[in-house]
Design a protein that fits this description.
The structure holds 2 protein chains of 2 kinds.
Chain A lengths: L4 E9 L3 H12 L4 E4 L14 E3 L7 H10 L10 H20 L17 E3 H14 L3 E3 L4 E6 L5 E8 L4 E12 L19 H8 L4 E2 L6 E6 L14 E3 L15 H8 L4 E4 L5 H10 L5 H6 L8 E9 L6 E2 L13 E3 L7 H4 L8 H24 L9 E2 L15 H12 L2 H5 L3 H21 L5 H25 L23 E4 L5 E4 L9
Parallel strand pairs in A: 1-2, 1-8, 2-5, 8-15
Antiparallel strand pairs in A: 3-4, 6-7, 6-16, 7-8, 9-14, 9-17, 10-13, 11-12, 12-13, 17-18
Chain B lengths: L1 E4 L9 H5 L5 E3 L5 E3 L10 H5 L5 E3 L15 H4 L5 H6 L14 H9 L3
Classes of the chains: A alpha+beta, B alpha+beta.
The structure holds flavin-adenine dinucleotide (FAD) and iron/sulfur cluster (2 copies).
The site of one iron/sulfur cluster (SF4) has 14 residues of chain B, from helix 1.
Cofactor (chain A): FAD
InterPro entries (chain A): FAD-dep_OxRdtase_2_FAD-bd, FAD/NAD-bd_sf, Fum_R/Succ_DH_flav-like_C_sf, Fum_Rdtase/Succ_DH_flav-like_C, NadB
Catalytic activity (chain A): L-aspartate + O2 = iminosuccinate + H2O2
Chain lengths: ~525, ~110
């Protein structure tokens, strides 16, 4: 059976944790829901294959206060206490639902109480799939969305996509759409992230939505040079070495990552996880088992042997930039369009830094919940008025080029990767390198937007190439506009934090990219 | 990257074709899954975790295994099949690995770097 046309109250694009929660909560609010994922709801996205710490904090005022205060400085004081408090509340509720509704098998402490501060991706997302289906959501796997649909007023009215396994296009007319397509890791092969090519941000921009925090997009994860398995937390137990066995001074998993990056530009960096006690070593094996598979399979003992490491780009998966949120229900500036998870900006709760651990997953489940409910409410308000309204497709680059069409998405992907993956461009930022990189990306965009069109599965790849190109241009435009160092955005040419730039940067535009401060500088932290 | 589909173990259930997030497999004419797009494999091990008969092996490399590598040799790999599924704790009679999860220890450490 091939599905061509589907009608629903709410369409959720993306089936990671954000999309899964959005679908469940929209359905529980009474909406008919379709969830379309590029891969498979349950295995796809950054969470499904990883071990995830969760920002789960007991609702005691001192504990909550400490949790909120702990990251404000690292994030460059761009987060918002009100949003943090909401996310802490919502995450607490959702984790408890996971225990009670989904019967997630949490570990228990010595007193027999469940420890609800972490989730293992495979188990978590398998149970979310079950819950989504029980809620009556229609799930379309291997069905990437390729563009949004809008009505005559410009309100979002559904989406179109392609079913990879039956090789057939599909269209969902919907009263509201939640974009939960994850961040953008530029096909770097970082664990679980190759489905995350920033598609949602492109769709949102084509509909006229704005982005925020795109300068916070230079996350890199440490991985053994031979594989894609990242788990930066474990490297805080590591020592890094030159090839001759001497210690690489200043290198580290958190603040010393730029030392590793600089060294990797000219020579290999070796590593050994030699600061973990036997007990901690055992704990690591239980925390993220797939971390050890590549080592075990190569006969390397990471606690005693030296192994080469690399840094894999995680872009906005562990950066914080994304679609700008304009209300507590995760609405955007475009009616009918909602954003959640890594596709949305996470500045509201962590400013310009996520580093490792816990805030991202908390944001994904909280924002997913709010976006799902918000979309359901919007759909109910529209009601019958939306039935049969004329819609038009909004996609441009990669699907409706300005000039005569050609293929060749792979070359565009390589061209974008050449500007965003190198450490000396994106991680170790300097205007002397950002300006020419942005010029090159602008040229790539013009050519791509002018000529690229894919067909069938090629359409999906062409749209991903367009999305990555657009993402990279927003990143570097914002990185140039933020003429200081703040959060993860570190300018080698401007190493100081500038108090007058304590405000978020909004970015947007496709053919012409623009950047503006969201507000005047926020008041100085008390 | 994914390297081996064991014809001996596989029961042609199509689970791997369905669950692979980057759509690496096709169902072959004989029902056995074929590694049709290996270059799209992101080495996430999800297919291994989901395969009910431990018939898949993901080699510890981000690119294809070199020619003649033991990581493509089913006989040499015998013990490695099903290892990840065992640790995840899926399959009849097993306890979910998440019961023994200790990730919170490491998250704690990141929140308050020492
Ligand atoms: C190795 C690793 C470890 C991490 N550890 C932690 C941690 O310990 N704590 C923490 O809080 N966070 C952690 N994170 C971050 C966390 O995983 C993400 O923040 C979280 O997965 C975001 O959820 P999401 O649903 O927004 O996106 P994802 O989980 O990435 O899901 C996005 C989904 O959208 C789908 N998609 C993409 N494009 C389209 C399209 N065009 N159409 C339809 N569907 C599409 C994808 O297939 C995917 O299923 C980690 C990330 C990585 C990579
Ligand atoms: S999941 Fe395992 S048994 Fe099923 S088709 Fe794939 S390899 Fe064969
Ligand atoms: S390792 Fe992941 S990407 Fe590779 S074939 Fe298996 S499921 Fe697909």
């Amino acid at each position: 059976m091939t599905i061509n046309e589907i009608d629903a109250d709410v369409l959720v694009a993306g089936g990671g944790p954000a999309g899964a929660w959005a679908a469940v909560k929209a359905a529980e609010a009474g909406a008919s829901v379709v969830l379309a994922d590029k891969g498979y709801l349950g295995t796809s996205g950054a969470t499904a294959s990883a071990g995830t710490g969760v920002w789960y904090v007991e609702p005691r005022p001192e504990a909550r206060e400490a949790a909120m205060a702990s990251r404000e400085g690292l994030g460059g004081y761009l987060a918002d206490r009100e949003w943090m408090a909401r996310v802490l509340d919502q995450t607490y509720a959702n984790m408890n639902e996971l225990a009670e509704v989904s019967r997630y098998p949490f570990p228990v402490d010595d007193d027999g109480r469940q420890i609800r501060r972490g989730l293992q991706g495979p188990e978590y997302m398998r149970r979310m799939r079950v819950r989504v289906r029980r809620a009556g959501v229609r799930v379309l796997d291997h069905s990437p969305v390729t563009e949004l649909l809008a009505d005559g007023s410009g309100a979002v009215a559904g989406a179109a996509g392609y079913r990879l396994r039956d090789e057939h296009p599909f269209r969902v007319t919907a009263r509201a759409v939640v974009l939960a397509t994850g961040g953008c890791a530029f096909l770097s092969k970082a664990l679980g992230c190759d489905v995350n090519t920033g598609d949602g941000a492109l769709f949102a921009a084509e509909a006229g939505a704005e982005l925020s925090g795109m300068e916070f997009s230079n996350a890199y994860a440490i991985a053994p040079a031979f594989t894609s398995v990242t788990k930066t937390a474990f490297y805080s137990f590591a020592t890094f070495y030159h090839a001759d066995g001497s210690v690489l001074e200043g290198a580290g998993s958190q603040r010393g990552r730029s030392v590793i990056a600089r060294t990797l530009l000219t020579e290999p960096v070796l590593c050994r996880i030699d600061k973990a006690t036997p007990e901690e070593q055992r704990a690591m094996r239980l925390a993220q088992p797939n971390f050890f598979l590549p080592f075990d399979r190569q006969g390397i003992d990471p606690f005693t042997d030296l192994f080469p490491v690399t840094l894999l780009a995680e872009g906005t998966v562990r950066g914080t930039g994304g679609i700008r949120i304009t209300g507590p229900d995760c609405a955007t500036t475009v009616p009918g369009l909602y954003a959640a998870g890594d596709a949305a900006t996470r500045e509201l709760i962590c400013g310009g830094f996520t580093g490792g651990g816990s805030h991202n997953s908390a944001w994904a489940m909280s924002s997913g919940t709010w976006a799902g409910r918000g979309a359901a409410r919007h759909a109910a308000e529209l009601g019958g008025r939306a039935t049969g309204r004329p819609v038009r497709a909004l996609g441009e680059a990669g699907v409706r080029p300005a000039g005569p069409a050609t293929g060749g998405h792979a070359e565009y992907v390589r061209a974008v990767q050449a500007e965003v993956l190198p450490y000396d461009k994106n991680l170790l930022r300097h205007a002397d390198r950002l300006v020419p990189a942005l010029d090159a990306l602008d040229r790539t965009w013009r050519e791509l937007a002018g000529t690229l069109r894919g067909e069938g599965a090629g359409l999906v790849r062409a749209r991903s190439a367009a999305a990555m190109t657009a993402h990279a241009r927003w990143m570097y435009s914002a990185a140039l506009a933020r003429t200081e160092t703040r959060g993860m955005h570190k300018r080698q040419d401007l190493p100081e934090q500038d108090p007058s730039q304590r405000r978020r940067l909004v970015t947007g535009g496709l053919h012409e990219v623009w950047t503006r401060p969201e507000t005047a500088a926020l008041a100085v932290a008390s | 990257m994914i390297e081996v589909v064991s014809a001996e173990r596989c029961v042609k259930c199509d689970v791997c074709v369905k669950v692979c997030p980057t759509d690496v497999f096709d169902r072959g004419a004989d029902g056995l899954p074929v590694i049709a797009r290996q270059s799209d494999c992101q080495s996430c091990f999800m297919c291994e975790a989901h395969c009910p008969t431990d018939a898949l092996y993901v080699a510890p490399f981000s690119g294809p295994a070199p020619d003649g590598s033991p990581h493509t040799d089913e006989a040499a790999l015998a013990d490695a099949f099903g290892e990840y599924r065992r640790i995840v704790g899926w399959g009849r009679g097993r306890t979910p690995g998440s019961r023994a999860d200790s990730n919170h220890i490491f998250t704690e450490r990141i929140r308050s770097p020492r």
